[in-house]
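Ticket reopened. Same input as before:
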Amino acid sequence: DVKVTQSSRYLVKRTGEKVFLECVQDMDHENMFWYRQDPGLGLRLIYFSYDVKMKEKGDIPEGYSVSREKKERFSLILESASTNQTSMYLCASHEAGPGVSNTEAFFGQGTRLTVV
Amino acid sequence: AQSVTQLGSHVSVSEGALVLLRCNYSSSVPPYLFWYVQYPNQGLQLLLKYTSAATLVKGINGFEAEFKKSETSFHLTKPSAHMSDAAEYFCAVSQKTSYDKVIFGPGTSLSVIP
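Engineering reply: fixed in the latest deploy. New output:
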């Protein structure tokens, strides 16, 4: 019963390429998130979205953008990939709305991106 | 601002021994607290969560955690480690705000020695 699906498990891209990471959730959640995970740093929030066409910067948005045209889909875009963006990228969705924070986040399997 | 610290980036225990993973948080208001587990090459899944109903929270796979407000802690324990418990564990905190961001700790990698 897959709930959050990331389009790729592994990706290898060249420096300067535009990269799209896709995430789809089937739980009708309002909130969706993109994190990157690096050893020793845990999960760092890149961007999140609390509604269609709405987005907010997280802690490390530089070099990234996002798109949410439909409720179920949240895309992360690397405008010009660089080697320091080599990382594991995790998408998550969350049922909560404003003022409600006690529900769990559901994560995709992750995309391991290597930029060469 | 909220933050989460996890003491020990790597913990090793023998199979059958007690597992104790430490988590401390800082928050100006009562938080919601979570423990997530990540098995190799997978995403995160929820182990348990504290939402102010009971200070001792039981989760999946025999794990439990106790919320101690005076110590701002939410340590994760399991009485007897199993080989299948080897994974990365993340403590996380969220609270009621305009948008529900979840802040994760840096993670603790648990190894179980046969």
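The mean pLDDT of chain A is 90. The first strand of chain A starts at residue 4 and ends at 6. Please confirm and we'll close it.
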